[in-house]
Description:
With 183 residues, this protein is α+β, with helices and mostly antiparallel strands. It has helices at residues 6-11, 22-27, 40-51, 101-108, 124-132, 154-157, 168-179; strands at 30-36, 57-59, 65-69, 72-73, 77-85, 88-97, 113-120, 137-143, 146-151, 160-165.
Amino acid sequence: MTSPTPTERLLFSPAPGAADSPLAYLARGFFQVAYVTPDMDRLLATLNDDLGVGRFFVIRDAHVEDQTLRGQPFESQQHLAFGYAGQLQFEIIQPISGSSIYTEFLDSRPGGGLHHLGILVDDYDKAVSEVSATLPLVQTGRSDTTRFAYFDTIATLGAYTEIVQLGERDLVLFEHIRGGSAV
């Protein structure tokens, strides 16, 4: 039996006393860094050329349903792109119509930038309920059976936090993208 590497020891062994905290529950699901940009194609080229993020899967005019912004129904459209560097997913969002936290972000940062950290959960309702007890819920939506909710953690983390429960269609898609397979 080999000894664990420093990476394994630090990243895959929970800290004593904190393993059952709500934050630890969420941190286990950290899988995504997301950027909002006014120019998706330019950012995709930069991520590929400068950082080595592999091939991106691009969804133009992504279909999102059941959207709420600060508790009120709304409509917006955006282009999305997903790629991987190792186990970390990069999501790129370019808003194209309607008001949302993406357009608000670009209003305050016209060049775009880091928008949110994505947390993958198995029980969306439980995670949203727990996080809503301490953080403001800002935006929600659904794509097929994938559900997501954004919480305002800008003052503490410098970005939003997104809770995501993947539906089977998106899980298979992300597995293909991560594995480099054609979709």
